[in-house]
Known about the structure:
By secondary structure, this protein is of the alpha+beta class.
Amino acid sequence: MNSEPHEITGPSLAAALMELGYTSPAIATALNGQFVARDARAAQPLHPGDRIEVLAPMQGG
């Protein structure tokens, strides 16, 4: 996380998010710089070298 590379074993973006511990529905995702809607994550396959971006709301200031 935080720009560090991770080995992902899941076949889809949804599986990768679960593997990385992102369980909240309140996140935004992008794959290789392209927004991926929540409904499309399970059908979005991952390939070697793909870059996943996750934006999660943070509290505090």
